[in-house]
């Protein structure tokens, strides 16, 4: 190995950054810590054994234990190393697949659209409509998976900027204008004065979009959605309350899981990734997300971000 | 006179689909399947709008954009990037170089694209 390779092998902080893991999870770092631990344990065992046995027997006992420790530590670091590599391959694979799949899906979707404008036969139109809906499902899934992949495996350091929570909330509300109108929902926005936040506005926009979309999708015609923004205990809080169908009690603890759909949501189109994405983003940004819900009454979702 | 739109994209299915949609709206569409063709067509046909993909054979879309902006004959033509590449660095670079928009194909229906085209041409 040349000098550059040797330096890279020893540069655990840089490697940890590349793989997107904290330093204390880095296998070689763990191995070093583990080694020191074994040495200390060996010394202790030797000193203790000396009280009961001759030095030679004590040394043999230490040898016996050390072999045991070494086997355990090898197994532990080997597994962890392998896991890291699998993780990285998984993310690379996902990236490539998502990228490759986009072009043919776009072609599918656009050509379908053209076919639908030309098709006069009602029965054929129906079939084409089914194809179109399913293509949309795939496209939504790709969109969400791209976000998940980016959030789970992001190695790029985040770029933070100053922004107003009220402003991005209003932007998101504008994006969902049509959906809100078509369901005749009443939206109320109550803003208490909060200082501007230093975080990642685009990601927070994704979170707010997901929460608002859920509130809209699971509300009935003419429902009410109340959004409140306020400051609490040095945190900026976003809260959204709807009087829609709510989440069944048995499903509540799974609601942030990947691909989870509550059993009363089967008629609503969704990937089951929205809340998982929200949770992952907020974890990364050192915020918190929570909810309260009662089936048949509605749900309250809220998230908070630290104010510096 | 019908507005001319140059679509630089190597995928034939997309060229055909978008071509059909634009034709129905009364626009004239010119197809270019490579970056070099795109540059040639832009200079020759002087379209009212250029839709530019980034993944092109032999020349990356951003290099095409650069050359378009360097050529005084084509630099005033509005360019909208229409691609499936979703890298933030590419979006920033494209806007920096003067692209009027950056759309991820897979997130838009043909109808959405037509709306954007109309909006851009009205300016």
Give a structural overview.
The complex is a heterodimer of chains A (about 300) and B (about 120). By secondary structure, chain A is of the alpha+beta class. Chain A is built from nine helices and seven strands; from the N terminus they run αααααβααββαββαββ. In chain A, strand 4 (about 225-230) and strand 5 form a beta hairpin. The model of chain A has no long low-confidence stretch (mean pLDDT about 90). A five-stranded parallel beta sheet of chain B has the order 2-1-3-4-5, with helices on both faces. The two termini of chain B are about 15 Å apart. In chain B, strand 4 (about 80-85), helix 4 (about 90-95) and strand 5 (about 100-105) form a beta-alpha-beta unit. Helix content of chain B is about 45%, strand content about 20%. At the A-B interface, helix 4 and helix 5 of A face helix 1 of B.
Task: Tag the structure with descriptive keywords.
heterodimer, A: 308 residues, alpha+beta, 5-stranded mixed β-sheet, two-stranded antiparallel ribbon, 15% strand, B: 123 residues, alpha/beta, 5-stranded parallel β-sheet, 5 helices
Task: Chart the SSEs and their pairings.
The complex is a heterodimer of chains A (308) and B (123).
Chain A: H1 3-10, H2 12-19, H3 27-52, H4 55-118, H5 122-153, E1 161-163, H6 165-175, H7 177-182, E2 186-191, E3 197-199, H8 201-217, E4 224-232, E5 235-242, H9 274-284, E6 288-294, E7 298-306
Parallel strand pairs in A: 2-4
Antiparallel strand pairs in A: 1-3, 4-5, 5-7, 6-7
Helix pairs in contact in A: 3-4, 4-5, 5-9, 6-8, 8-9
Chain B: E1 4-8, H1 12-24, E2 28-32, H2 35-45, E3 49-52, H3 61-70, E4 79-83, H4 88-96, E5 101-104, H5 110-122
Parallel strand pairs in B: 1-2, 1-3, 3-4, 4-5
Helix pairs in contact in B: 2-3
């Amino acid at each position: 190995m040349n000098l550059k390779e040797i330096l890279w092998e020893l540069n655990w902080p840089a490697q940890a950054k590349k793989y997107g893991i904290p330093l204390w999870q880095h296998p070689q770092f763990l191995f070093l810590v583990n080694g020191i631990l074994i040495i200390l344990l060996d010394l202790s065992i030797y000193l203790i054994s000396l009280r009961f046995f001759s030095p030679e027997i004590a040394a043999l006992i230490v040898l016996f234990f050390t072999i045991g420790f070494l086997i355990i530590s090898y197994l532990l670091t080997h597994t962890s190393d392998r896991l890291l590599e699998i993780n990285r391959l998984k993310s690379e694979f996902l990236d490539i697949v998502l990228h490759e799949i986009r072009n043919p899906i776009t072609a599918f979707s656009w050509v379908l659209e053209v076919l639908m404008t030309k098709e006069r036969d009602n029965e054929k139109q129906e079939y084409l409509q089914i194809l179109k809906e399913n293509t949309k499902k795939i496209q939504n899934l790709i969109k969400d998976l791209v976000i998940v992949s980016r959030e789970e495996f992001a190695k790029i350091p985040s770029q933070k900027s100053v922004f107003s929570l009220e402003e991005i909330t209003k932007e998101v509300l504008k994006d969902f204008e049509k959906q809100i109108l078509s369901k005749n929902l009443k939206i109320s926005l109550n803003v208490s004065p909060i200082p501007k936040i230093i975080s990642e506005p685009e990601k927070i926009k994704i979170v707010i979009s997901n929460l608002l979309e859920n509130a809209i999708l699971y509300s009935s015609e003419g429902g009410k959605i109340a959004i409140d923004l306020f400051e609490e205990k040095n945190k900026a809080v976003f809260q959204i309350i709807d009087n829609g169908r709510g989440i069944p009690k048995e499903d509540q603890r799974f609601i942030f899981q990947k691909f989870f759909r509550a059993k009363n949501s089967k008629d609503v189109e969704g990937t089951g990734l929205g809340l998982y994405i929200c949770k992952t983003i907020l974890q990364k940004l050192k915020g918190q997300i929570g909810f309260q819900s009662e089936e048949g009454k509605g749900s309250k979702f809220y998230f908070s971000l630290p104010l510096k | 006179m019908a507005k001319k739109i140059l679509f630089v994209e190597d995928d034939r299915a997309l060229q055909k689909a978008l071509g059909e949609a634009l034709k129905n709206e009364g626009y004239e569409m010119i197809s270019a399947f490579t970056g070099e063709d795109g540059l040639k067509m832009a200079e020759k046909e002087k379209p009212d709008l250029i839709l530019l993909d980034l993944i092109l054979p032999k020349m990356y879309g951003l290099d095409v954009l650069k050359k378009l902006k360097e050529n005084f004959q084509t630099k005033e033509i509005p360019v909208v990037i229409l691609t499936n590449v979703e890298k933030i660095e590419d979006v920033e670079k494209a806007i920096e170089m003067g692209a009027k928009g950056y759309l991820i194909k897979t997130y838009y229906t043909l109808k959405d694209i037509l709306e954007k085209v109309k909006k851009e041409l009205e300016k």
